[in-house]
Design brief:
- The chain has about 120 residues and is mostly helical.
- The protein is built from 5 helices and no strands.
Length: about 120
């Protein structure tokens, strides 16, 4: 079996690992063993939180829609139910943006939702 000299590749691996650990405190940024554990933990958190970010934003949108709907005399659940019954297919991200930036348009959506509720009761 031929002899393998690892110096160049090993240095490259360590250097890329230490660049990922940049910004950490103490030995976590310049000791390879500690840096490896730091980077692995950080990557695990990043993977997890890419998924959690979706649920966090949905919660924020729902809070904003609820606040705007209550200003117009309707609860969030009744507002969403009315929109569904009226056949309006706007997602919560768009509804939240309308609630924050365009009160007149949101008032029209509340009217549509109220109409949808009255139509099916």
């Amino acid at each position: 079996m031929p002899r393998v000299k690892r110096a160049v590749h090993a240095r490259k691996k360590r250097k890329s690992l230490l660049s990922l650990a940049k910004g950490s405190w103490g030995g976590r940024k310049n000791l390879v063993g500690q840096a490896r554990m730091t980077v692995e933990k950080g990557l695990a958190y990043a993977y997890r939180d890419r998924r959690n970010k979706k649920r966090d934003f949905r919660r924020l949108w729902i809070v904003r829609i609820n606040a705007a709907a209550r200003n117009h005399g309707l609860s969030y659940s009744k507002f969403i139910q009315g929109l569904n019954q009226a056949g309006v297919t706007l997602d919560r991200k768009v509804l939240s943006d309308i609630a924050v930036h365009d009160d007149a348009a949101f008032a029209e959506l509340v009217k549509v939702a109220s109409g949808g509720l009255e139509q099916n009761t």
